[in-house]
Amino acid sequence: MSIHLVIIDALNLIRRVHSAQPDASDIARTAQTTSRTLSRIINESQPTHIIAVFDHHLQERGWRAELLPEYKQNRKPMPEPLQEGLESIQEAWWQLGVDSLLSEGDEADDLVATLAMKVASHGEKVTIISTDKGYCQLLSPTLQIRDYFQHRWLDAPFIEQEFGVKPEQLADYWGLAGISSSQVTGVPGIGPKAAKEILTQFANIDEAYASESLAPKYRKKLDEHIEQAKLCRQVAALKTDIELGFNLQDLRYSPPEQG
Q1: Integer CA distances (angstroms), 121 to 106, 115, 212, in order
Q2: Buried b vs exposed e over 59-74: b needs ≥16 C-beta within 10 Å?
Q3: In this structure, what is the dihedral angle of CA atoms 37, 41, 105, 225, given to the nearest 10 degrees?
Q4: Measured between alpha carbons, how far is 185 from 189 in angstroms, rounded to an integer?
Q5: How far is residue 238's CA from residue 220's CA, in Å, rounded to a whole number?
Q6: What is the radius of gyration, based on Cα positions, of the chain?
């Protein structure tokens, strides 16, 4: 039997649904709306296996903030009603046959990446449901990312159009250009256009830095900030080697019985 694992970036989905609700304190409505959204995702994707991955809401900013203290420093806290209502949302999703996995010590992104790569590396199909372009660095013939809200695939042509680089170059791109929304600085004086130009000529930051043919205007910046570039690349990259503590069988999707 062919496998299709669907991984829901849970808070990514919930925050978007919640922000569109007319009454932010009406968690029952958020639970109902996210459940309807989840049902549509299931109907569209037809998973054999499925899991919703959550960041633990009590968790600090994790290992990335230890490397780069300013990482997500200005991130808005989750609205209190939503934080208090997460368990009811998880319970509603459980009724649909979707279990929840809470990260502890690692960001949900890294849990998603580890699980997705583990399954995709065996040639099985994986779909990540998220608007987060950070997952695009994982793209492969059997691993795809679906932006449910924009009804689009975040695929290699999308990345080419959006950033002008290949999916496997994204961490290097962000190492150079930074990620303003997460306070990842990148290299001062190198923006998206320059990062694209460098990575069109070279495969990655290391190759650019080692080459004598790197343009002088970029040579000076990299000479001064190469460690910063590598650090920001490390922060932008996803970990794919987390100990999971469960197997694929635990994620098998069983539709709820129709009563």
Answers
A1: 22, 10, 36
A2: eebbbbbeebeebbee
A3: -100
A4: 10
A5: 28
A6: 20
Task: Quote the tokens at residue 119.
Answer: 């399954």
Each residue's pLDDT expressed in tens, for the chain with a length of 259 residues: 699 999 999 999 999 998 888 777 788 899 999 999 999 999 999 999 999 999 865 556 688 989 999 998 888 888 888 888 999 999 999 999 999 998 776 789 999 999 999 999 999 999 999 999 999 999 999 999 999 999 999 999 999 999 999 999 999 999 999 999 999 999 999 999 999 999 999 999 999 999 999 999 999 999 999 999 999 999 999 999 998 888 899 999 998 876 5
Helices (H), 125-211: 156-163, 170-177, 192-201, 205-210
Start-to-end CA span in the chain (Å)? 28
> 184 has which bridge partners?
179
Is pTM beyond 0.90 here? yes
What backbone phi and psi angles, to 5 degrees, belong to 190? -110, 115
